[in-house]
Amino acid sequence: MNAADWILKHGENLQIAGFFSILAVLVVAERLAPRRTGAMSRTRRWPVNFFLTFVNLAAMSVLPVSFIGAALWAESHGVGLLHRVALPPIGAVAITLLVRAFISFFTHYLNHMVPLFWRVHRVHYLDTELDVTRDSHRVHHSAWRPETNSNFGAVLPIWDGSSGRFAPTLAMGTNGCGWGWTRCEAPTPSGRCGCSAAS
Fold first, then answer.
1. Which of 25, 85, 115, 135 is deepest in the core (most CB within 10 A)?
2. Is 62 helix (H, G, I), strand (E, B) or coil?
């Protein structure tokens, strides 16, 4: 079995292993050099977050089509742009990453804009500490709705930038309300978040 066949056969497990490997490195880095100081109550928060991660992985595993399964089907049926245009491997990889980043960006956007999807997705915003994350994701978890509705890209900010949804820094999110939606559920008429007594 050559390397390409091995990756296709084990791609899903490779992605999961890669995710948890990177997460482990970030957890260790966070413990050694925290981005923020103070009580983080990790023993209460992290088990809940890991449980939600495993629920998400389990839900994804029962979907009838995965990215790799769709790619194998497209290859066997000669469907798709990359089967019609001869590109060097680096070009095919770049286009694949851009398309996958767009799918991630757009589904995340829909999770915020469609009320039914938001009811399910907002559980992701209950953690107000954000101890292991990058700054653009920190902006996305602002308690101020315009910032929460920015920075949808999981890895690449290209689609956020091209759609006008990229916010490089916190404008208002830490001024009074902080992060997460346990404290703010509705903006006030001035556009600031409406903080509950918990803030």
1. 135
2. coil
Per-residue pLDDT tens over the stretch 96-143? 888 888 988 998 899 888 988 888 887 777 777 777 777 777 788 777
Residue pair 125/148 in contact by the 8 Å Cβ criterion: yes
Token digits for 108? 């995340």
Residues paired with residue 142 on neighbouring β-strands, in sequence order: 179
| Residue 162 belongs to some domain of the structure | yes
Angstrom distance (rounded) from CA 97 to CA 105: 12
Q: Into how many domains does the chain fold?
A: 1
127, part of any domain: yes
- 16-30 per-position pLDDT tens digit: 888 889 889 988 888
What type of residue is 173?
G
CB atoms within 10 A of CB 110: 13
Name the token pair of 123: 């559980």
**Token pair recorded at residue 195:** 């903080």
129 occurs within a structural domain: yes
